[in-house]
Structure formats: C-alpha cells, structure tokens
Design brief:
CATH topology: Fumarylacetoacetate hydrolase, domain 2
CATH superfamily: Fumarylacetoacetase-like, C-terminal domain
Oligomer: single chain
CATH architecture: Alpha-Beta Complex
Helix content: 25-40%
Shape: globular
Number of strands: 13
Length: 273
C-alpha cells in the first residue's frame, strides 16, 4: 500500500466531511478528487487512504466495531477501467452484516450494487514478515459464499481510484452464506459462480477472476495490512473481491448466488425508499 501522509491537512478533513455529509443527508456527493492538488498517482492514493483512516477513526469513536476487511478492484477489467494496477481495501464494521433471512432495507443504502464473493474467516493472525501463500492458507479457518453490497457515496458512481479508496472502498453491506467449508476442501481458482435475481441469471464468473485466486487476493491484503500497521487478526472476516460482474440492486428482488463447492448465499431487498 502507498505510504500514508504523516500530516493530515484541511483538504483531508474536507474530503472526510463531504463523505460524512452524504451519509447523513442520504444524498450522494461530488467526487473528492477535486480536493487533491497533485497529479502523482501514488500521492492521490495516499490521500484517499488518509481520508479512509479519518472516517474509520470517527466511526470507531462513535461506537462502531471493526470485524474485518474487504478487498476491492480484484478484477483486471475493473482495474483497467480505473487505470490502476493494484487492488484496494476497506474496513468491515459489525453493523454492515446482514443475514440471509433479513429483508434488507434500501433506505440503508444510496446506490447499491451486488456482487458474489468468497468470504474467509481467519483462525490465526497474519502478522508475520514476508508472508507466503501457504501461510495465508494455513491461517484461514473457513471459506463461505458471500454477497457484498457495494455502495458509493459519490454521485452516479463517478469514481476514480482516489474516490473509492477514500469512501471505504465503496463498502455498503455484506451477507455470509450458512455453509462454511474448510479451505483444504476447495479449489478456489476453479470454482464457478452463478448469480440470479428472482431466478433470472444476471452474473456469472469463476474464482480465477479474483486476482487469479481469491487466496492471492487475501495474501495481498495480509501483506498490505501488516505494512500499514493494522495486521489481520484471528476472527477477522475478509471479503475476497468479486468473482463476476456486479449488478445494480433492484427493489423487491431476491438475489441468490451459487458458488461451486461453497453452496449458496441469499440476499432479499425490500421496496424502494
């Protein structure tokens, strides 16, 4: 991950306030990239993560509890679209979790889209230097089919990398399936995913679409988190990144994803608000 700025400036604070205002008003805001005065891509990403950290600290102070992390931009097609060559990451809070038997209130979201992913639950810390793929695999307790409901606070999803990073990697909500499996039973790059909306297929994909292997995405995150001073810990939930194209959420719709070897996950949405 790009090194964070040592000094938080008024522009970082302005960006954080703009995103917080969008949440409070339930109204998407303008992109925050207009607050950045540098054209250097690395400095822009660092700006975004500094804003994300400000927002995370404010959330914690308000009583929200961190339960894990998400990996975004794991698709080569999406990376090319945004002109980047690496994933990004955001924070998962306990109040972002929904269960399969809940009807999700669209009033909790602004511009939601849904994507099928693999979720990992860690059984060991990932804080060692020079982490390897084998160490990461050994640290995984279980894997399960999951939905991430991504949501941008930026109007019309008019985002670049700096905008989505600052906006907690466009996190919204997540739903975990009910049939977690030991990782040793799974060939994640080869798994096939199919997602339907009210029984109509709307997205297909494979495990290899996620950086070649969802475990490689987890390795990237583990190394990145350790370098930033916040290593992944036992008990953390990690969303791997999408296995196929995300789709806009429609009201009064039930989405079901089947991931070969991991079973299914379901998310039902209520009426428009």
């Amino acid at each position: 991950m790009t090194t964070l700025p040592r000094v938080i400036t008024s522009r970082h604070a302005q960006a954080a306030q703009r995103l917080q205002q969008a949440i409070r008003d339930r109204t998407p805001c303008a992109p925050i990239r207009d607050l950045v005065t540098t054209d250097d891509p690395e400095a822009q990403v660092a700006f975004g993560y500094a804003v994300q950290r400000l927002l995370t600290e404010a959330a914690r102070e308000s009583g929200r509890r961190v339960v894990g992390a998400k990996i975004g931009l794991t698709s080569e097609a999406v990376q090319k679209q945004l002109g980047v060559d690496q994933p990004d990451t955001g924070v998962l809070f306990a109040d972002m979790a929904r269960t399969e038997d809940q009807v999700i209130d669209l009033g909790d979201l602004l511009q939601p889209k849904i994507e099928a992913e693999v979720a990992f639950t860690l059984r060991a810390d990932l804080d060692a230097p020079d982490l390897t793929l084998d160490q990461v695999r050994d640290a995984v307790g279980t894997a399960v089919a999951a939905f991430e409901i991504v949501d941008s606070r930026v109007e019309n999803w008019d985002i670049r990398l700096i905008d989505t990073v600052a906006d907690n990697a466009s996190s919204g909500l997540f739903v975990l399936g009910s049939d977690p499996r030991p990782l040793r039973e799974l060939d994640l790059p080869a798994v096939v995913m199919s997602m339907s909306a009210n029984n109509e297929v709307v997205s297909r994909g494979i495990g290899a679409a996620c950086l070649g292997d969802p475990c490689l995405a987890l390795l990237w995150l583990a190394r990145t988190a350790r370098k930033s001073g916040s290593p992944l810990r036992a008990g953390d939930v990690v969303l791997s990144g999408a296995l196929g194209p995300m789709v806009p959420v429609s009201p009064n719709t039930t989405y079901t994803a089947t991931i070969e070897g991991l079973g299914t996950v379901r998310a039902a949405f209520g009426p428009a608000r």
